[in-house]
Write a structure and sequence with these properties.
four-stranded antiparallel sheet, alpha/beta, single chain, 3 domains, Aspartate Aminotransferase, domain 1, Aspartate Aminotransferase, domain 2
């Protein structure tokens, strides 16, 4: 067949296809769309989307370049991505919930295996014995690390875990007041409100000591009463402080019949006590630091565990149990306590979360298995030492108060700018090839012009020295 004939047939074929349809995507021809709209009683696509406010709708065609081949699309995307700068190109001191930690190559390789490449727990779970065993290992490792009796096979993220923990506490105590630290991450607070307000749970903030950054014990004692379902607090806190009273707070809560919900940093447990070791009732965490790289802020890994049979039956999400095969010769794994789940109990379920971040949970199990107790302790000490070095170097910068609080710190600490705007300092740092910390001035105005700086094992001594020198130049010139 001649080239001219092939070209003519192709042109004729293209003319038959509606300009809004695609030859490889079903249900996009105009006739099929009209039938679908008719079936649901809608006259047009515009009418279908009429409940979306006009001010948030795009009223003009998207500027999508007309790329015809896979090669052209790939080249275009790579050109866009090349404009980004990552932590490989510039040092970063930004943390505040997402952290730049090293994920071992072995962990990446294992979670890349096709047996595990799903973020979803299958409903026909017992046919996935390898996946269930991996999640059982995750639960076991996390329970051992935290000192909790039971840890589920993960949730969506750390903020989601806080919301679920608060609702667990309200259900189990029959109370509706939750105490939280005033220095809670604003994004976490937003998610917590989404979980608590529809359930009739009230949130009351406990102030922090202006000198140490830790919970104000006087304010806590005035608000902790027999109407309190739980106190939620963090070790380390959002400000990076390590509160010396943290291990005694669960007993204070129990004296009023309230529960203690403790948020922890997984790597910090290489040097700090686990929440269960000082009688916390529920432990929650964001597990991104031990499972995956930052990835523009997601996906993340929610960790939640508890102590006591009453709370276990209120625990959301999946729990994997170990038993044996019918002949008793081999171990076997199965989902247990599923009667809490929404696919079984509908609106009477303890949570509408009936899935989990299985892939990242497996990554966390691999990460912790590779490091072991000694490696985790070594990593904690490395981060702690670098944090102290960074505070020492920055304390020598004129015009900067570093750290802002008098306390012990892990990984993060607040610095105060005595005569400069934190946002302007960050802008100048970025122009010099350094990503500064999270500006706190708007969200915590009582701290004045301030930033939260983060240091991990990935932060070199040279980059800390560079930050110190650039801040001297910037603050000296403002």
């Amino acid at each position: 067949m001649s080239t001219q004939l092939l070209g003519a047939e192709k042109e004729a074929s293209v003319q038959k296809v509606n300009k809004n349809s695609h030859p490889f995507i079903p249900n996009t021809s105009e006739s099929i769309r009209l039938k679908m709209l008719e079936a649901i009683g809608v006259g047009s696509i515009e009418e279908l989307y009429s409940d979306i406010p006009a001010e948030v709708r795009v009223s003009h065609p998207l500027k999508i370049p007309a790329l015809n081949s896979e090669h052209e699309v790939l080249t275009h995307i790579e050109a866009l991505l090349s404009q980004n700068q990552s932590t490989k190109e510039i040092p970063t001191f930004l943390g505040a919930g997402i952290y730049n930690h090293y994920v071992p190559a072995a962990a990446k390789a294992i979670v890349s295996r096709v047996e595990f490449q799903t973020a979803y727990t299958p409903y026909q779970a017992e046919i996935s014995q390898g996946l269930l065993q991996a999640l059982f290992e995750f639960q076991s490792i996390m329970a051992d690390l935290t000192g909790m009796e039971v840890v589920n096979s993960s949730l969506y993220d750390g903020s989601n875990a806080i919301g679920e923990a608060v609702r667990m506490a309200a259900r189990s105590t029959g109370r509706r007041k939750i105490l939280i630290p005033k220095c809670l991450h604003p994004d976490r607070l937003s998610v917590l409100r989404n979980y608590s307000e529809p359930s009739g749970i009230s949130i009351e903030k406990v102030d922090y000591d202006k000198e140490t950054g830790s919970l104000d014990m006087g304010d806590l004692e005035s608000k902790l009463d027999n109407a309190t379902a739980a106190l939620y607090y963090e070790v380390p806190s959002f400000f990076g402080t390590l509160d010396p009273e943290a291990t005694r707070l669960p007993d204070k809560c129990h004296s009023q019949g309230a529960l203690a919900i403790v948020a922890f940093d997984p790597i910090s447990l290489g040097g700090l006590k686990g929440p269960g070791d000082y009688n916390a009732d529920i432990a929650v965490a964001e597990g991104q630091s031990i499972s995956t790289e930052m990835n523009y802020g997601g996906p993340l890994l929610g960790i939640i565990g508890c102590r006591g049979e009453t709370l276990v039956r209120q625990l959301p999400g999946r729990i994997i149990g170990m038993t044996t095969t019918l002949d008793g010769k081999s171990p076997a794994y199965s989902m247990v306590l599923q009667t809490r789940e929404q696919h079984i109990r509908r609106e009477r379920a303890t949570s509408n979360i009936c899935t989990n971040e299985a892939l990242l949970a497996i990554g966390a199990a691999v990460y912790l298995s590779l490091l072991g107790p000694h490696g985790l302790k070594q990593l904690f000490e490395t981060i702690k030492t670098k944090t102290e070095y960074a505070m020492m170097k920055l304390s020598q910068v004129p015009g900067l108060t570093a750290p802002r609080f008098k306390s012990h710190f892990y990984q993060e600490f607040v610095v105060g700018f005595n005569r400069s705007k934190a946002s302007e300092v960050n802008r100048r740092l970025l122009s010099e090839g350094i990503h500064g910390g999270k500006v706190l001035s708007a969200e915590f105005p009582d701290l004045g012009e301030s930033s939260l700086l983060c240091v991990t094992e990935m932060t070199s001594q040279e980059s800390i020295d560079q930050l110190s020198e650039k801040l001297k130049e910037i603050l000296g010139g403002i």
